[in-house]
Design a protein that fits this description.
There is one protein chain. The protein has 3 domains: 187 residues, no CATH class; 110 residues, Alpha Horseshoe (Serine Threonine Protein Phosphatase 5, Tetratricopeptide repeat); 125 residues. The protein is built from 18 helices and 12 strands. Strands 3, 4, 5, 7, 8 and 12 form a 6-stranded antiparallel beta sheet that branches. The chain has a two-stranded antiparallel sheet with strand order 1-2. Strands 6-9 form a two-stranded antiparallel sheet. Strand 10 and strand 11 form a beta hairpin. Helix 3 packs antiparallel against helix 4 and helix 9 packs parallel to helix 12.
């Protein structure tokens, strides 16, 4: 059975959660409509989540009583190099009409009965704490999840984990997979509070075993940082700013551990620094949330997520300096003899993008020029220059992780419960400073799509684009054509 059908089985249970678009990485940046005047969406009672990878936030019957502004999501724009006709229609979607496969349901029920019989036999011979129970309980819990019986799945996972802890000790890592299963089960049920507790438990347990300088803690830091960004995007947790600042702190700690244990040329070092920059950008855009949070709240972050190699006060972060430092560290990690490489040029481009996002035009021009010079010395210089500077690109674009959480997963999650989908074709100029001007909508506007187009106009005008660079200088470009896919 496909993963898509498995997710559809959960629709009747409650709500699917769509991570609401946020400014900068958002699909609705610049929206001033009163129906969506907040920067994030609150969770509502009686919600459910399909998986940690794609949370969605939509009422149960998403086809009624919701405006376009409340459910509209745009994907990353696709550059269009040639003339084309805009799409004027909408494709209606009704995923609720799909039904589970009855035959598979019966097979799963028979398998559960078989596992229950095994568990009963083990209990009779080995008692209620026999370690052999864990494997059967986990298998049974997985089947319960497929049936949508999340309470039963959670009970089985929790018992399996408890048996493991009794037999192997509280600090054993043997029960980590069971805790990970519990996270997924609570997400499927819609209990983000419990899922968050077990995410924290996963980090806490591994930090007790490994400490805060051992490189084996890095995957736990990465997982928790990603989780914090997801629940921030879903508007979960009070105060909300702590989720964002926690993610920043965790990515910084991960990059420091990798650097001290494996060196700055380890590919994970640059990855975590890019994620740090992406999170720092969000911090800068949501500075109001941080300013509203009491300083005492931030002290808990420093105590809970210590950085074994660096200590700093997270209560006074602004976002700009943290992101700039992260991207500069990536560029600095290249040795002198590597300054003629494509990777070094990309690091300089990302640094220039950062300057441009914060209106440091002269610094951006200098970094773009240096990157262009590096690429010009390559054997395939024309191809490389075209790749980085041949078309305008919406910014920020340096963190794949952040882009996945705030755009791609949001789009995928929304598609599961969307009422309609389509795309809008636009053409606009981009100045040497990355500003979109002379915006023209190529798609025919009508009563059906007028609010989508109105929203897209604001989005494009609020976006900073990496300009085209010619002969080392950013230049104005005309007639840039993009296709924006949307669902609502």
């Amino acid at each position: 059975m496909s993963r898509f059908i498995q997710k559809l089985r959960r629709l009747p249970l409650g709500l699917l959660f769509l991570a609401w678009p946020l400014l900068g990485y958002s699909e609705n940046a610049g929206n001033t409509d009163n129906t969506q005047n907040t920067q994030y969406a609150r969770m509502t009672e009686g919600s459910t989540v399909s998986s940690e990878a794609d949370m969605v936030l939509v009422p149960m019957d998403s086809r009624t009583n919701l405006s376009v502004y409340e459910t509209l999501v745009f994907d990353l724009p696709i550059p269009m190099q040639e003339e084309f006709q805009g799409y004027t229609g909408l494709e209606e979607i009704d995923v609720f009409s799909l039904q589970p496969e009855d035959g598979l349901v019966e097979e799963q029920l028979l398998a559960i009965q078989h596992l229950e019989s095994n568990i009963s036999e083990i209990e009779q011979t080995g008692g209620p704490w026999d370690l052999n129970l864990s494997e059967n309980l986990v298998a049974m819990a997985e089947l319960y999840e497929q049936q949508g019986a999340y309470d039963e799945a959670i009970d089985a996972y929790a018992r399996a984990m408890h048996i493991s802890r009794v037999n192997l000790g509280l600090d054993s890592l043997d029960h980590i997979p069971m805790a990970e299963h519990l996270v997924e089960a609570y997400l499927a049920k819609g209990d983000l509070a419990s899922a968050d507790q077990y995410q924290e438990y996963l980090y806490y347990t591994q930090s007790r075993v490994f400490g805060f300088e051992d490189p084996r803690i890095v995957p736990a830091l990465d997982r928790l940082a990603s989780w914090k960004l997801k629940i921030f995007n879903a508007g979960f947790g009070e105060p909300l700013a702590l989720q964002l600042v926690s993610a920043l702190r965790l990515y910084q700690a991960a990059s420091n551990i990798v650097s001290h244990n494996f060196g700055n040329r380890d590919e994970r070092y640059a990855k975590y620094l890019r994620d740090t920059a992406g999170t720092a950008f969000l911090v800068s855009r949501y500075k109001g949330l941080i300013d509203e949070t009491p300083i005492t709240e931030f002290r808990t972050i420093q105590e809970r997520y210590p950085d074994g190699y660096r200590d700093y006060n997270v209560a006074f972060i602004e976002g700009y300096e943290e992101g700039l430092e992260a991207l500069q560290l990536i560029a600095d990690s290249f040795a002198e003899e590597q300054h003629d490489s494509k990777e070094y040029a990309k690091a300089l481009v990302h640094l220039a993008d950062w300057y441009l996002l914060f209106d440091r035009q002269r610094s951006a021009e200098s970094s773009y020029a240096e990157a262009y010079q590096v690429l010009s010395g390559q054997e395939n210089s024309a191809e490389l220059i075209g790749e980085l500077f041949g078309t305008v690109r919406p910014l920020p674009a340096f963190s794949d992780e952040i882009e996945t959480i705030f755009i791609k997963s949001t789009m995928e999650g929304r598609e599961q419960v969307a009422r309609a989908s389509g795309f809008v074709d636009v053409r606009f100029d981009v100045t040497q400073y990355g500003t979109a001007t002379n915006l023209e909508v190529l798609t025919e506007e009508n009563e059906i799509n007028e609010r989508v187009i109105s929203n897209l106009r604001r989005k494009v005008r609020a976006t900073t684009f990496r300009p085209i660079v010619k002969d080392g200088e950013p230049v104005r470009s005309e007639g840039n054509q993009f296709r924006y896919r949307f669902v609502y």
